[in-house]
Amino acid sequence: MLPRPKKRLGQHFLTDRHYLERIVAEIDPKPGEAMIEIGPGPGALTERLARFVTPLHVVEIDRELASALRARFAPEAVVVHEGDALAFDLASLPEGLRVVGNLPYNVSTPLLFHVASFAPRIRDCVFMLQKEVVDRMVAEPGTPDYGRLSVMLQYRFAMSLAFGVPPGAFTPPPKVDSAVVRMAPLSEGRPAARDEALFAQIVMAAFTQRRKTLRNAARALVDDEAFRRAGIDPGRRGETLGVAEFIALADACRPG
Q: Are 185 and 156 in contact (CB under 8 A)?
């Protein structure tokens, strides 16, 4: 019997066996891998992953669900970390970590940024999210879905939409469609901003008021000389710039 989902935690449990098996196939778990599942819930995906990966780490914020997982799985098979995934230190687990799970939709964006901060230690991520969020993650410049989330994740990851998941695959069914996305960290030789904090500030400014030109949106961070050095027209809007152009703009503000 499924536990009663808690609205305050945004719980929707994936119960459709077909989609559970498709997610496992997408992850393609292998013995010996380091893996953590975020938001295991009642453990439907956990059970399938634990057949391949030992130990499988899971992080669950719901005390009752965490207790049930400990009772269901042997501690040497599944290590249950009770707490908020937003506060979990992924660096406490081995490098080459695989991060998977059905991310709670109400905190999906903060969780994605949290995971991204550990990108150098991660092998890949396979997440199920609200499809609207996945569309923003994989969006290209100049499209309506392209924004801060797109730039900040594409700065560190190559991403691809794997497949969609309908509301009926969940208990209770959410009011939105879902999708599975794969994220693979870019190589160490990827283009990187000299000042990543400034890069993030410029990206945020560019999308805080999307209809403003870059000159107006980022005036507190970027002067005309920096636009000239970067070769970027300050009359453009942030939604037209690719990741490499945002990097160039940030570096132009800190010439070295």
A: yes
Check: CB of residue 127 under 8 Å from CB of residue 111: no
Q: Which CATH class is domain 196-253?
A: mainly alpha
Cβ atoms of 30 and 126 within 8 Å: the answer is no
The answer to whether the beta carbons of residues 36 and 99 sit under 8 Å apart is yes
- Displacement of CA 112 from its chain's centroid (Å): 3
> Do 159 and 137 form a contact (C-beta atoms < 8 A)?
yes
Helix axes 196-208, 243-253, angle to 10 degrees: 120
pLDDT, tens digit, for every residue of 30-50?
999 999 999 999 999 999 999
Q: Residue 40 in contact with residue 69, Cβ under 8 Å?
A: yes
Give the pTM.
0.93
d(Cα 62, Cα 152) in Å, to the nearest integer?
Answer: 29
The answer to whether the beta carbons of residues 15 and 2 sit under 8 Å apart is yes
- The DSSP symbol for 187 reads P
Q: Which residues pair with 122 in a beta bridge?
A: 97
Q: Where are the domains of the chain?
A: 7-185, 196-253
